């Protein structure tokens, strides 16, 4: 029996309502993305049933508890690699697609590139800054959390990914609706042919990320000239669903100890981006629910949302309210998909005249620092605890001297690099009849023992908190910060 009858569009957006069969096709696609990601993880880990489930096909029963998972919108990856001052500059600029995942010293340098751009805003919230061409003062900043799949579906096709594998999803589509949305939200000058590619778009490794004649999420009206929806490669609905599936699996470090800390869990489990605000937060929260023995899924409507913008500390030169400078264009309060920050013309000044804690706004990223992004998970607490053996984490993370504040993922130790999180796991699986950890061979996890998991059940609540508190106290005594407090960008930073 299913918990849901149908998956709705993100934030219940109404654009599909007048397109025959589009809503039904959206439901089938989201359901397929759940099923295919779950199947991929089951195949990877010996076909062991997962605690992650598709609410359109299964109702686990029990007590359902919703959990909001929140993080800051400004990309922590840029803070770690470039420092805040330069990160604010770089975050506002589109980068050549060749810079994705590479992070060169000058990532916005276009010399020798293909002319395809993306936004380096990897926290499931992206923005575009419109400035006065003569004075460079900021006139408008538009933010979006709309997934690219929603817009792709209007063309009739959301391409799959054979490496997962995720299959192509087909829709009735409606080119007129697609073009109308671009005209309403971006520019009346958009032409339909502007939105498609004439040849394959490739990343830095030569992989085709958009094929010839497909809808181009990197088109000029969604990069250099405006913003319609998310286009940074990690920012997608399928990626969100996959992250939930991956995070529902328990993992151990190389010594067989259970992983619970967000950064260490992300590093050894090798899913998502370890330098982001979003992925470690999502992964750790879902994993904590899984450790409680709950079934977990994403709440309908599945989407990524801006929850709110914090205007405390903002001030206008006329001392009047700031709230009328913020408008929600798409979505709902708490489920914001598109938001514009712009001073009404009648007030006679621009965004650059606003201040946050006394500092004038010079970059869109300063506003992003005040935005909280979220998704909502659902945990079903069932009467009988679900016994799941942890999987051996196969990832490794290192500190590279070139980027001393960033985490780097490699299969083996690079020259001069130092492996991180060697002492973050908890428990000793070799004592008190604990289960022997699964060993992955050729992509499949096999269990060398089926002994009781009692010791790992013990470490799911008070003991975890106690060990974490002890580590924090120890670090404080030695002058070392906790791993999740070490870098700027955690939480919702304020300009000072």
Describe what you observe in this structure.
Helices cover 23% and strands 20% of the residues. With 496 residues, it is an alpha+beta fold. The strands form 9 sheets. Strands 1, 11, 12 and 18 form a 4-stranded antiparallel β-sheet that branches. Strands 4-5-15-14 form a 4-stranded antiparallel β-sheet. A 3-stranded antiparallel β-sheet has the order 13-16-17, with no helix packed on it. Helix 1 packs parallel to helix 5. The longest helix is centred in the N-terminal third of the chain and has 23 residues. The chain is globular, with a radius of gyration of 23 Å.
Number of strands: 24
Distance between the termini: 53 Å
Q: Give the overall form.
A: globular
- Tally the structural domains: 1
Helical content, roughly? Answer: 10-25%
SS strand fraction? 15-25%
| Mean of pLDDT | 84
Largest sheet: 4 strands, antiparallel
Structural class: alpha+beta
Question: How many DSSP H or I helices?
Answer: 10
Low-pLDDT ranges? 431-469, 471-476, 478-496
What would the keywords be for this entry?
496 residues; 4-stranded antiparallel β-sheet; 10 helices; globular
SSE layout:
Layout lengths: L21 H23 L18 E10 L3 H16 L3 E2 L20 E2 L7 E6 L6 E7 L3 H5 L4 E2 L10 E2 L4 H11 L15 E2 L5 E3 L26 H11 L3 E2 L9 H8 L8 H14 L3 E4 L6 E5 L4 E2 L10 E7 L2 E7 L13 E2 L2 E2 L3 H5 L2 E11 L9 E2 L4 E4 L2 E7 L8 E2 L19 E3 L2 E3 L7 H5 L3 H17 L18
Parallel strand pairs: 10-19
Antiparallel strand pairs: 1-18, 2-3, 4-5, 5-15, 6-7, 8-9, 11-18, 12-18, 13-16, 14-15, 16-17, 20-21, 20-22, 23-24
Helix pairs in contact: 1-5, 5-7, 6-7
